[in-house]
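Protein chain data
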Amino acid sequence: MAEIQLFAARPEDDRRAPDCAWRRMDALRSGWPDGDGVAVFNRLCLSADDDIEAPYTGGYGAGHAVARETSELRSALVERYLAAVDAVAVGGRAPAGWRPLFEYRRHPGVRAAQFALAGVNAHVGHDLPLATVDLCRARGCEPAELETAFARVGDALALLVERVGDEVPAGPDILRVGDPLTHLLGSWNLERALEAAWSSARVLWGLREVPPLAEEFRERMDAGVGLVGRCLLTPYG
């Protein structure tokens, strides 16, 4: 059974890793039906790629070093998602944060917007803290040194969330004021999720010399993200 590592190895060539990851995601898109819940999240990421480039390359008065850190964090983040896909593809289990999306991916009572937001929830709550720690280990730096890069990635993820509405088809499935699903999806807040992800990354970094405690914290963090994801995927058929 495939396992997801607590801390991932650094890509051999950081300059090529982002492009390779996006090519893999594009290849996955052609292999999944449009209604597949994981495909919905995958398509969301690809459709927003052009729009989210700016937060990675500008703003914050940052120079080349921060832009590179942001690109590396982006790469580590996407690789975490792809690791979950790979684990499931070979008969393994995805992390708990991703598991509801894979379990419900073909449920006819779950709408596209739910799949999209559940994917963002797992990406932020599970992948982002671990990706931040991955990069800290690779660079030999403290999380505080990556705070600007983390903020940039958060801005890009905010643009991703703005696009979740685009995943709602026209017709009877469109979300309306007063719709219970509108209330459910509105209860998830990216800003709070990012704050929790940053705190989790700092705690995991602080526990790095005590692997059993780090693993216990990671499992609890992962389980909490999975619980939120399961709620977001409540069927409304």
In short: The chain has one domain: 17-232. The mean pLDDT is 84.
